[in-house]
Structures are given as C-alpha cells and as structure tokens.
Write a structure and sequence with these properties.
This is SAM-dependent methyltransferase. Pfam families: Methyltransf_25. One of its GO terms (molecular function) is methyltransferase activity. It is a single chain. This protein is of the alpha/beta class and 285 residues long. It has a single domain, classed as Vaccinia Virus protein VP39 (Rossmann fold). It has seven helices and eleven strands. Strand 7 and strand 8 form a beta hairpin. Helix 5 runs parallel beside helix 7. The longest helix is centred in the first third of the chain and has 18 residues. It binds S-adenosylmethionine.
Length: 285
C-alpha cells in the first residue's frame, strides 16, 4: 500500500484533503493558467481528478467527442450532469450546446458549484448549477441528505441525457439503484444515461487476484467491493450482473459498454483518459 493510501485510510478526510492541497496552492501562486481556452479552474480546485491544465483540456476534448459520436448528444439537448464537480465535462459543451439547450450541473461540493456559477453561468444563462447537501463519507461526511432517498428536483421526462462521470464509483449499490430509478424518471422516453463505473465479473476478479488491474477492490461488502474499507466511498466497484439487473428493473437498456483501462482493457483512440473507468451508455425504454 502506498503512503498516500495508508494516510487516506487512517486520518480524517478533511485533514488529508487539507495537507493534500498545500502544494497545489503554492503551484497556483507560481504558475500562470492557460488563456484563450475558456474558463479553467485553479489547480487547487481540481481536487476531483488530475491537477494538470493540459490534461483538463485534453479530457474536455475527449468527452466532447464521446458525447457527439458515442452518446449521440445533439446541440439542443437538455442535459443533467450529476456530480459535475469542477466542470471538467461542462466546459467543452459551452461552444457545442446552442441557445435552445439546457445544461444542469449538480454536485454536493459547494466549491466547484460556486466556481461554475461565477465563471460559466455568469456568461451562459443556459448553464445552471445547483448544490445539494448529500451525504457521502468521502466527499461530504456532514451532508444532511441521504442519497438513497434523494428526489431529483425535476419533473418527469425533463432531460434528453443524464451523465455521471466517476460518481457511481463513489456510491453504494442501494444508492446507485435509487439514483437509477430517479434518473429514469427524469429522462424523456428514448433518453440516454451515460455513466462510468468500476465493473467486475469473474474474469476481472481473476485478473485482480493476479495483480493485473490498476486498482484492487479486495475488500468485499454487500453487493460491491472497495479499495478502502475505512472509507468505502473512496472507490467502489459493482458487478456487471448486478448493474444489469438494476437497469432491467428501472427500464434502461444497454446500448454500449466500453470497458476501462483500470482493469486492463485498451480504450478506443481518443478516449484514453476518460475511459480509465468503464463507461456504459443506456437508453430509457
Ligand atoms: C471524481 S469526482 C468527478 C467529478 C466530475 N464528474 C468529473 O468527471 O470531473 C466525483 C464527484 O461526485 C460528487 N458526488 C459524490 N457523491 C455524490 C452523490 N451521491 N450525488 C451527487 N454527486 C456526488 C462529488 O462531490 C464529486 O464532485
């Protein structure tokens, strides 16, 4: 186990995060952010993924390609991005979505939402952001809302597409199942859910045992596995069969599954960063 993982597993998350951010605050003082590429957050704010301007922009280009060519997003679609973070997958849509479109970004972390409101909504009123105080032991240990009871604050059949990037990978199976049911409710008939997961089956578990996967979900919990037994929401994996049964229950049909690099698969060209996790595209029946 690395020193970083050992610290993560033992000290309170808020203390870990504070220590983790210090070098990045110094980097922000001493580094110039790129210009002419749309709004871009500070390295300190990029705590939810790689803290690197080039990777931020590259992943944005990858995601836009995925939205257009694989998920079938149209310029006038209504999009809901649950767990939008700091907008890694939002910024690339600024030039793509037209004035008939709607983009709603939702997250439990106020820092990202505040930055997006100041830097995106202020320029583009069709991009809307809301923060909800949802409990998550890793991201929001004092959150008041229980994820398994959350009602998405939108009428039925509101969205053409719902996306969740690296969000279900921090949620327990019963909460994912509840979100799936709510997502299906707010999707229009024929609408698309694109989400990333850590998915396992017998073959992947065998690879994991041989040490051939990039993450080791060795700790077995109910219907899932984690890398961190103290804070399981740090990284959670679910089985492909379990996910299929939830999709069947809520009325979603798989369109495409892109297995991720984390378990030894080779992502398609142009999705090298984004397809580290498994990406599943499903349609509402
Ligand atoms: C790894 S980050 C990914 C952020 C963003 N989707 C991206 O790809 O850059 C996970 C995000 O999910 C959010 N999150 C975690 N649990 C959530 C929940 N139950 N509902 C909504 N958002 C959640 C976290 O606050 C965090 O911003």
């Amino acid at each position: 186990m690395s020193i970083k993982q050992a610290l993560k597993n033992t000290i309170p998350t808020s203390v870990f995060n504070y220590i983790r951010d210090v070098p990045w605050v110094i980097r922000d003082w001493t580094t110039k952010s790129p210009t002419g590429c749309g709004p871009i957050p500070s390295l300190k704010l990029m705590f939810d993924g790689p803290r690197d301007y080039e990777l931020f922009l590259k992943q944005g280009r990858e995601t836009l390609g995925f939205y257009k060519n694989i998920a079938g997003m149209k310029p006038d679609d209504a999009i809901l991005d649950i767990g939008c973070g700091i907008g890694r997958k939002t910024i690339p849509l600024l030039d793509y979505l037209n004035s008939n479109a709607l983009y709603v970004g939702m997250d439990l972390d106020r820092r990202g939402i505040d930055w997006l409101l100041r830097n995106v909504t202020s320029q583009n009123q069709r991009f809307v952001f809301l923060q909800q105080d949802i409990y998550n032991k890793f991201y929001n240990p004092k959150g008041a809302l229980i994820p398994g009871k959350l009602v998405l604050p939108f009428p039925d059949a509101s969205f053409d597409m719902v996306v969740l990037w690296s969000v279900f990978t921090h949620m327990f199976p019963e909460d994912i199942a509840h979100y799936m049911s709510e997502i299906t409710r707010v999707l229009k008939p024929g609408g698309t859910l694109a989400a990333s997961y850590f998915l396992y089956d017998d073959e992947i578990l065998a690879r994991m045992q041989r040490g051939e996967t990039k993450s080791n979900f060795n700790h077995v919990l109910k219907d899932c596995r984690t890398t961190n037994p103290n804070i399981p929401e740090d990284a959670l994996a679910v089985s492909r069969d379990w996910l299929q049964s939830v999709q069947d229950q809520v009325g979603l049909q798989t369109q495409q599954l892109l297995m991720g690099a984390w378990s030894g698969h080779t992502p398609p060209q142009g999705l090298e960063i984004t397809n580290h996790q498994d990406i599943l595209v499903a349609k509402k029946r």
